[in-house]
Write a sequence for this structure.
């Protein structure tokens, strides 16, 4: 049986944390500290913190990016990371984490949410992208073209891109990747 390798290339750890409203200043200081220490680890590419808009339900989304899965793993299993996690008790009401590969893989949804399989080959991603994007651009031109005719071209293009992106992310790409799952992931049935 072939061993499934973790994804290679850049990987992002997305963390959603709901903070106790009375602990927001302490959480902000904690976030600055853990992010400073993460920068010291090999392969660190960056961190982005999306701060809450609702101060009664302060949910932060933190995206930490490393150049490889192994470097991310080194950070997560480090004593430094564990010490910071210990310091977070009492600040955070709920936390969820998800590792995401970078690039087009984010659009590919395996049937039954199977994970651990390598991403489809690049050429298959390109073919799937063309099969998804081309009809959506035609649809955007047909539906939005008359409505956007009087707008400045860059604004009209932005609206068209938003329309195509919204449909591409859901439902088109998940539907296509599920429908073409046997072609994208030919080895998944042999697990």
């Amino acid at each position: 049986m072939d061993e499934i390798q973790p994804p290679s290339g850049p990987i992002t750890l997305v963390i959603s944390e709901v903070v106790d409203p009375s602990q927001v200043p302490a959480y902000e200081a904690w976030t600055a500290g853990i992010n400073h220490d993460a920068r010291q680890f090999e392969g660190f590419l960056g961190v982005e913190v999306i701060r809450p808009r609702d101060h009664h339900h302060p949910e932060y989304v933190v995206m930490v990016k490393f150049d490889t899965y192994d470097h991310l793993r080194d950070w997560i299993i480090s004593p430094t990371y564990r010490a910071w996690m210990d310091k977070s008790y009492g600040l955070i009401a709920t936390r969820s984490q998800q590792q995401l590969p970078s690039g087009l893989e984010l659009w590919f949804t395996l049937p039954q949410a199977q994970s651990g399989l390598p991403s489809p080959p690049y050429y298959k991603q390109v073919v799937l992208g063309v099969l998804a994007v081309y009809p959506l651009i035609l649809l955007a031109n047909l539906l939005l073209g008359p409505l956007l005719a009087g707008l400045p071209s860059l604004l009209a293009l932005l609206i068209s891109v938003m329309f195509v992106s919204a449909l591409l992310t859901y439902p088109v790409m998940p539907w296509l990747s599920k429908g073409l799952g046997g072609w994208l992931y030919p080895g998944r049935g042999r697990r």
